[in-house]
Amino acid sequence: MNVMSLTAVELGRKIKAKEVAVEEAVTAALDAIDKKEGTVHSFVTVDREGAIKRAKEVQKLISEGSLTGPLAGVPVAVKDNICTKDLKTTCSSHILYNFVPTYTAEAAARLERAGAIILGKTNMDEFAMGSTTETSAFGVTRNPWNTAHVPGGSSGGSCAAVAAEECSYALGSDTGGSIRQPSAFCGVTGIKPTYGTVSRYGLIAYGSSLDQIGPVAKDVTDCAAILETIASYDSKDSTSVKREDYAFTEALVDDVAGMKIGIPRDYFGAGLDPQVKEAVLRAAKALEEKGALVEEFDLSLVEYAIPAYYVIACAEASSNLARFDGVKYGYRTEEYEGLHNMYKKSRSEGFGTEVKRRIMLGSFVLSSGYYDAYYLKALRTKALIKQAFDKAFAKYDVILGPAAPTTAPKLGESLKDPIKMYLGDIYTVSVNLAGLPGISLPCGKDDNGLPIGLQLIGDCFKEKNIIRAAYAFEKTREYEHSPLA
Amino acid sequence: MSKTYETVIGLEVHVELATKTKIFCGCSTAFGGAPNSHTCPVCTGMPGSLPVLNKQVVEYAMAVGLATNCKITQYSKFDRKNYFYPDNPQNYQISQLYLPICRDGGVEIETSAGKKVVGIHEIHMEEDAGKLVHDEWEDVSIVDYNRSGVPLIEIVSEPDMRSAEEVIAYLEKLRMIIQYLGASDCKLNEGSMRADVNLSVREAGSKEFGTRTEMKNLNSFKAIARAIEGERARQIELLEEGKKVLQETRRWDDNKEYSYAMRSKEDAKDYRYFPEPDLAPIVISDEWISDVKARQPELRTEKMERYQREFGLPEYDADIITGHKKLADLFEETAAICGRPKKVSNWIMVETMRLLKENEMDADDISFSPEHFAKLVELADSGSITNTVAKEVFERIFREDIDPEKYVEEQGLKTVNDEGALRAVAEQVVKENPQSVEDYLNGKEKAIGFLVGQTMKAMKGKANPGLVSQFLKELLEQKKG
């Protein structure tokens, strides 16, 4: 039996049944990492000793009966923008190349309390800015389906690690599609929860009003179980919401009879790869055949989502990233004359091109004289987009569309034309602007054998609708392991 | 000077709030402590940390707003003020620009020019920065984040003041209100109250404002008054010479009594304010406002009335004592212990005020305990010590907060009531002062005063003055006989 080919919940069950020892599972993961990292490079940091030590402790707690959750003893990979105490957390940036947090992010701490074993930290676009994981300061991650292609981003390391079966599941973060798009490219499943569902405490901020941590795994069941574990009201995060219902696994029901599914015509226009379109519409058909009521509608405002998103995210990022200045932690330039020169050199040398581009863009839109024309206008657009979704959700339980307009591009193709790369976020960013939950799951492959992702969007706090629809669709097909698995 | 000029002044007053914990984390706000000992990931700007608003800060800000006749903004927000400086760990300060918690208030002041209202444009909440320490030997700067995240309110006045006297009256009024509310101790010298002065001059009668400068680093009322006079003179001189006043920030050097322009880089910045995405808007209900109002402690006017009614203090005394929160607290606490409010009031009105004045001290500098003060009042009032001794002991209390009972005991200052001893001394004094005796016998009754004085002096002030004058009278009458 290859324990790495199991889903997280399956592995958890076998651990509980004493069919697999925790250390055995962790060793299998570390072996897989040893074998595949040279090819896929999903990780920035692997915590070999820590994971083995922790495996022993967790095994003891499971054997004693004090750890009984579905994820107890299951190895996980954590995106490198989620703080882990005593374990380097770099955001894949040179400016944090040596940063070791003094505390663990709430979401990761909740996983640890549930008995998760953290294997290490996954590669990402620098500070989550990018759609390919190519902006990482520590090298690119390759797509396990075809290593000439990118895994998507920014949670490319997490998604590739799951697809390559270097871990049982992973945590990612999603500011404009950073969980859903790489999940689509890597043929795995990922959820971006409703804003406020998972604590952001300890998530190194990119766009604070848009960031959410979420699960990446092989299937919907895993994602629901992981989300149930990491979601909570957290008094340390003022944007955290006290929800009535966190029982996401209850929605794992293969029944969509009567469920109303809307397909926004605006998501199927120019720019959408025909093979992606076909696979996504086939998925809609499959749900319809299971009794869902599927119809097309006009969502509107879709073309404004990208500019609004980039203005807001970059504005917040320009301020959020100000703290990386060489004074307190992280990279400081070798030689400098005085404070301002130290700031300037440390930041010039520490940040990569894409990060600098977004900091400058964000600083510009917040500058006096431009604030109203850009930032305020973007906020107004955000409110209008939310209204458009409100209108849609008055009619539909779920909105169905592609996660990305294409399958994974080749390495080295995207960064030359940032605007084109930004436009690739067209189907995902509006979900963040409106604070909605979204899930991406595999729904086919293109002629090159690259996975295609289906995106299901729900109303705020209605994760259960998209989990149910995704689960029902997933039942119509088999999970495909990547060639690197 | 050929023309007459009017000075126009507005103030930005920062007040450090008296909360136990910081504005956005649970760290202590206590002064002192080893550098960086009152810190956590939030107030040191660690990556991934998030602010959580301390509700007490909102309540203090509301209380100050209500007591200064402001409107409370019921949907208020925080904004980020972006600037790079190492004392600010995030390189942005969480403050309020667009929707400050209080707006459109004012307080009445009284000066030699009469009564007037100084308008308050707004009050907003924000966080304090850390402290940079420059090590000259090592040529490095190190930073202490213990003060980082200490809550502040900034009270921005309208440009309604016209003289240093009005500015001081306004500041004293603010300080009194805030101290009475318990929202801050408002110590200028310790920085828990800081005032920046915006000043311009214009020809008398002009409707237009002149170009203003902002002055910083003003650590006492006296420094503020001197800085205003200095800046007024500087601006008038420029105008008289046909030059222009530059809009700039100037730093006052109180030793040199001169202000100099801060580098323009430190001034005139684009702070790129935007709404703080990590904090939810503050929604203040009518109920919350009335709740804060209901919990508002007794302010000066009510206190003054109560002192007259309850303790029978004269209006003048009640006015002076309630004029400073520290004096009012001292009065109430001491009176509660010894049960002699009128005596306590007298000690404050006469001896305390005298010592404050002689030592150029402010009521805030009073450091003795009401317990020791109360004991002294009891000792004096019961006749255990004489008035002369009491004054001397009070000075010791004022300076060193000694325990008067112990002190009187140790120094042997108790009033001497021993009739034999007193009579012996009185006889000696009568013997040594024949001239005074003769004067008395010749009908100059006042001469006995001198003899009482001499006797008291011989007894080092400790003699029971009643007994002394009784014995002297007896001795002199005997001589008459």
Describe the 3D structure.
The complex is a heterodimer of chains A (485) and B (481). Chain A has a domain at 3-253: Amidase signature (AS) enzymes. In chain A, 39% of the residues lie in helices and 13% in strands. Chain A contains 15 helices and eleven strands. Chain A has helices at 8-16, 22-40, 48-64, 106-113, 156-163, 180-186, 220-230, 274-289, 302-320, 338-350, 353-366, 371-393, 418-423, 429-433, 463-474; strands spanning 43-46, 75-79, 117-122, 169-174, 189-192, 212-217, 260-264, 293-297, 398-402, 438-445, 451-458. Chain A has an eleven-stranded mixed β-sheet with strand order 1-3-2-4-6-5-10-11-9-7-8, with helices on both faces. In chain A, helix 5 runs parallel beside helix 6 (180-186) and helix 9 (302-320) crosses helix 11. Chain B is of the alpha+beta class. Chain B is elongated. Chain B has helices at 55-67, 164-181, 221-240, 286-294, 300-311, 315-322, 325-338, 341-358, 370-381, 387-400, 404-411, 419-432, 434-441, 447-458, 465-480, and strands at 5-16, 71-72, 75-76, 79-82, 92-95, 102-111, 114-127, 131-135, 140-144, 151-157, 193-203, 213-216, 249-253, 258-261, 274-275, 282-283. The relative contact order of chain B is 0.09. Chain B is built from 15 helices and 16 strands. In chain B, the strands form four sheets. A nine-stranded mixed β-sheet of chain B has the order 2-6-7-10-1-11-12-13-14. The chains are: A alpha/beta (485), B alpha+beta (481).
Salient structural properties:
heterodimer, A: 485 residues, alpha/beta, Amidase signature (AS) enzymes, eleven-stranded mixed β-sheet, 15 helices, 13% strand, B: 481 residues, alpha+beta, Arc Repressor Mutant, subunit A, three-stranded antiparallel β-sheet, 16 strands
List the helices and strands and how they pair.
The complex is a heterodimer of chains A (485) and B (481).
Chain A: H1 8-16, H2 22-40, E1 43-46, H3 48-64, E2 75-79, H4 106-113, E3 117-122, H5 156-163, E4 169-174, H6 180-186, E5 189-192, E6 212-217, H7 220-230, E7 260-264, H8 274-289, E8 293-297, H9 302-320, H10 338-350, H11 353-366, H12 371-393, E9 398-402, H13 418-423, H14 429-433, E10 438-445, E11 451-458, H15 463-474
Parallel strand pairs in A: 2-3, 2-4, 7-8, 7-9
Antiparallel strand pairs in A: 1-3, 4-6, 5-6, 5-10, 9-11, 10-11
Chain B: E1 5-16, H1 55-67, E2 71-72, E3 75-76, E4 79-82, E5 92-95, E6 102-111, E7 114-127, E8 131-135, E9 140-144, E10 151-157, H2 164-181, E11 193-203, E12 213-216, H3 221-240, E13 249-253, E14 258-261, E15 274-275, E16 282-283, H4 286-294, H5 300-311, H6 315-322, H7 325-338, H8 341-358, H9 370-381, H10 387-400, H11 404-411, H12 419-432, H13 434-441, H14 447-458, H15 465-480
Parallel strand pairs in B: 12-13
Antiparallel strand pairs in B: 1-10, 1-11, 2-6, 3-16, 4-5, 4-15, 6-7, 7-10, 8-9, 11-12, 13-14
Helix pairs in contact in B: 2-3, 5-6, 6-8, 7-8, 7-9, 9-10, 12-14, 12-15, 13-14, 14-15
